[in-house]
Structure prediction request, 401 residues.
Amino acid sequence: MNPLSLAYASVRSRRLNTLLCVLASAAGIALLCAVLLLSRSLEGGLARNIEGVDVVVGAKGSPVQLILSSIYHADIPTGNIEQADAEKVEKMPQVKSVIPVALGDNYLGWHIVGTTNDYISLYGGEFSDGRTFDKPFEAVAGALTGLKTNAEFAGVHGLEADGDDIHHFHNYLITGVLKPTGTVLDRLIITSVGSVQQLHMHPDADDPDGTDEMKIGHQVTALLVKVKSPLAIASLPRLINQQSVMQAASPAFEMTRLAQRMGFGRDVLTALGAAFIGLSALMLLSSLSASLAARRYDLGVMRVLGASPLMLGATVVAEGIILSGAGTVLGLLGGHGFAYAVASQVKSLQGLVLPQSYLSLNVADIDILLIGLFVGFAAGLLPAVSAGRTDIAALLAKGRA
Prediction:
């Protein structure tokens, strides 16, 4: 006879009550686990997409919009800059390297990005099939686009999938498909800057936007700049903003500000998860107390048979740990599954996280498991003390009733 076997037998005898306690624990743990997984991976995804980019240069406007449109491709660009101005930035002494980005078209909602092969290297892109682009109108497809090697398509002007201004002048040819990277590269179609510029120099005769499109023939949308020294990260944007028609912004600075604004919603969900865990602790306490009241006579008999007060108290604590442990394990599985479903279905998360990463355990799960077990231990302490102080003579004199 040991506390664990006695606790397990007690839990089995109250199956409905046990199920409710386990589900209450699992709900709180699942919510907390999912919030932590999504928030941490989202923060990691945002940071991963700006690695290697110190400064972004583009048209005047909102710096946050410039970062969102040029790096994350989650907003409308602030405009375009002239090729001549872009070349001036490349020649500045603070600049180590520049990757141009030319936007303006899409295919089925996937943005077509005119750039260089350095853009693919920036995000660690590797080919699952085919090769990179070498000639005009050759393109590389991201893992989420569903495009296959040797597929041909015509780009649509604008960034909306339902646009009707189709560039029939020249089709793109997919020469390669990339492996998933967990970055924006997964949802883009990459081609050369020259391809995007050349395509817009031949608008349809009756196109009302034809004049604006022709301007793109000697423009780019933004420049992703790597500087030579940390000091230039602060000095270069000031210099460009004050002395040119362009604007420059630090993606790390702007995304930190944006993350601070978005932090409130995450904090609310985390607090809600903690509240669920507290509620499950109270439910465990209620369940164990009710179980103790119903089994006091049995506990008295156990004392007569030789069970010590410590044995009875340990049995009650073990019940709490078993219930909370089962709920925590179930909650962790549910939290990972829920996070995977959200990451797979929410389009705004595509290119920021890899959904399959949620199917593996991580270090945070150990912390959550320890929290769950501690909740069960704490919930069982008060009933355990009460069980250890059982008055044997009074209980046996009173009888089972």
